[in-house]
Amino acid sequence: QVQLVESGGGLVQAGGSLRLSCAASGRTFSITTMGWFRQAPGKEREFVAAIVWHDTSTRYADSVKGRFTISRDNAKRTLYLQMNSLKPDDTAVYYCNNYPGSTWAWGQGTQVTVSS
Fold first, then answer.
1. In a designed cystine with 35, which of 79, 99, 109, 110 is the match (CB 3.0 to 4.6 A)?
2. Whether residue 88 has a cis bond before it, omega within 30° of 0
3. How are beta strands 46-52 and 33-39 bridged, if at all?
4. What is the helix, strand, coil percentage profile of the chain, to 5?
């Protein structure tokens, strides 16, 4: 199993930036693809971005393309999400997990709040 700890969220004004981190521990040799997901109040959790661990190819939800960048540090077993040009609609709790199955136990997430 892999344990996940997300961090880096906060309160930011529209147009601002944040960088999220996700530290993975445990059976990290099993990492192939990881992703970021988010859940806004009253909504289902949704996909945000994913990265293939060995070749760093990426994919993004249409809603964040051109504004968010996913990356990873293999040595630190850490996943990142650089979020620029934030919008109030980006307000959510952000989580990381493997992709696409999200089969690992979810971490506590990190809250991102974007004020207008």
1. 99
2. no
3. antiparallel
4. 5, 55, 40
Q: Distance between CA atoms of 116 and 112, rounded to whole angstroms?
A: 13
Question: Beta strands 10-13 and 110-115: pairing type?
Answer: parallel
C-alpha Rg value of the chain to the nearest Å: 13
pLDDT in tens, 17-71: 999 999 999 988 888 999 999 999 999 999 999 999 999 999 999 999 999 999 9
- The DSSP code sequence of 31-78 is -SEEEEEEE-TTS--EEEEEEETTT--EEE-TTTTTTEEEEEETTTTE
What the block records as the tokens of 35 is 């992703």
Contacts of 106 (CB under 8 A, 6+ apart): 4, 95, 97
